[in-house]
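Cont'd.
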Amino acid sequence: MSYMKSLAGALVMLGSWAAQASAPSAADLQALEKDLNAVGDRITRLQDLTEVEIVQHAYGYYVDKAQWRSLADLFADDATLEIGGKGIFLGKKRVFEYMNTGLGPIGPRDGLLIDHQQFQCLPTIHEDGVTAETRCIAFVMSSGGWGHNYYEDDFVKENGVWKFKKLHGPFNMYAGYKLGWQDNVIVNTYPEKFPPWPDLPPSIIYLTFPSYYIEPFHYANPVTGKPMPAPSPRAGGEAFGR
Amino acid sequence: MLAYPCRVRYDAGAWDDSTGVAMIFRSKAMPLVLSVCIGLALCGNGFAKDDAARLAALKARVKAMADETSYVEAITKIQRLGRAFGYYTDKGYFGEAADLFIDDGTFQWGVDGVYKGKARIRELLTRHGGGSMKEGPGLPFGRLNLRMQLQPVVTVAADGNTAHARWREWGLLGEYKKSATWGDAIAEDDYVKQNGVWKIAARRYYLNFEAPYQGGWAALKPVTGEWQSAVAKDFPPDAPASKQYAPFPAVFVPPYDYADGNLRAIRSRAPFDAPKRPDDSLGKLEALADAKELQLARTESVRAIENLQAMYGYYIDKGQWKKAASLFSRAGTYEFGQSGVYIGNAHIERALSLMGPEGLEQGQLNNYVMVQPIIHISPDNRSAKARWRSDVQLSRAGKGRWGGGVYENEYVNDKGTWKFSKLHYYVTFWGDYDKGWAAAPIPMDPPSTSIPPDQPPTVVYQSFPKLQIVPYHYVNPVSGRPNAGE
């Protein structure tokens, strides 16, 4: 029996030595949890990219069918909206008014096409994880003809939900169907062009095609990391490049 | 699984009659108490080994998740590169566009040839876009150079350092009072990651047409002989093009350099059920990893479905009905406007052939631009729904046509490969090119009598000038309210 006891004792000791050698320590677990959460944060950023794009794309489908209430619901309470040259509208209610008064009553109207396709979105989720920006395009096919505008929009994540914080839609080119942009262009809007009147004047005065305006990029060049250079002061003039 | 020999027995209350070691001692009539002691000691050791193995396994999983996250990030970064390129060329930022390439990057323009290096690419883009090499970014008065970069199919190589993408460029080009032009091209890009930064290594730009606004693409005449651009004559390329072809109205299929048939682009994780994890500190981390893994799989599925829908669009463009139909699940359904419902790959292929012969004929244009996705993956990553928009540019027998509409599609994760389980295109409008959709809307075709559907249309409606709200598969993404109540 004593032999057996010694053997058992040795085994017990061996067992505890092995346990000491390989049981994960609290530090091991903490390090692993940290790694896991770091990957988790990156996954959340990927999900954020999709969710921000969904808000922008949903906006376009609502414009198509004049669903102004659903559209206004995409905005944070204190969000701002500035489209074309109309000036700035403050808050969700004014977003609704801009649409409902400026663009016509709620709901699709037979014979009036206002398709606003949204694409080429380039979203950036900021380090804080609760603010984001995107550059996108709206390409308009309407009963009147064509439109092309950019967006440089801000988003905020409130209670886990991404919303518009600022919608800024500078126009590039609007043209009628018959001749297109060759000789049928429609100039930018302006505050008094149609009601309602804006809460604040336009943040920038610019002209649309055939003139030149470049809406600043919110992002640096993805390869060089450098911010955008200023355009030539002669861009948009006949003397440019001569 | 190596795991839990002691734990399982302990939980089952039967640990004492199983391990070989314990049995040896028992066979020598070991007193029970000693047996328990030894057993505990061994089990302690077993637990430790077991925990060590679990820890190592979890570490390996976290590493694999990091790699898979990098894969999905790479797709988003490549999408970003392509889109940034478009925004630069739009406004005459040709130096910035060229800076998206590696130092010895290449740009092959149509059949003109290949331009090598950033400086040459900058000049190439400047000459085609109407900019200036002499002064800063910009365009002169009246120059329009909007080149929309759409519908990417991104395939990242297994090593994570190279990638390919196919893009569609839709151009609005021209000079005020002189010209308005539609541009249509496919770009096949190679990318490489240098010092952690994704860059464009090569762009092969397959111009399909530059068509005058008046008359549009349907009025284009076949090209005979050389059709190099005017730019190439004044600014010769550094090397000949890898491919000679004729543009529209010929039907040319730009090579699928992203690897046609490489399904990685439309794959994600196969559906999985996470096992119940032990109620200990390691088990909590394992359960957390399970949840993150599912979240990751779902973000990967979003990109797979983007790729799938874009790939479908490229096949439809060129009348590749068989390839397009192969992207459906076996019980998949297809419904286009008022076509009725076609079920199964073979019948869907026949339904698609109502658009034209396999490969199309000279003069047929069938551009279905796939944009504006709203993709929702089911919580278990087994299925998905998405809304998409299509702008359509057609040509048949010398007549051009515009179209627009909305898809509400469903998808299934078939052992890790995403497929269409339901494709439903709601036509918003069809319109004659010359007169426009407002002046000359065209009604939808009724169900075919030559290749009849399996079922009648699921929703009966009329296209423009009638308008209706296409049902949404989702609630308002911010308010959570249904979209119907206005």
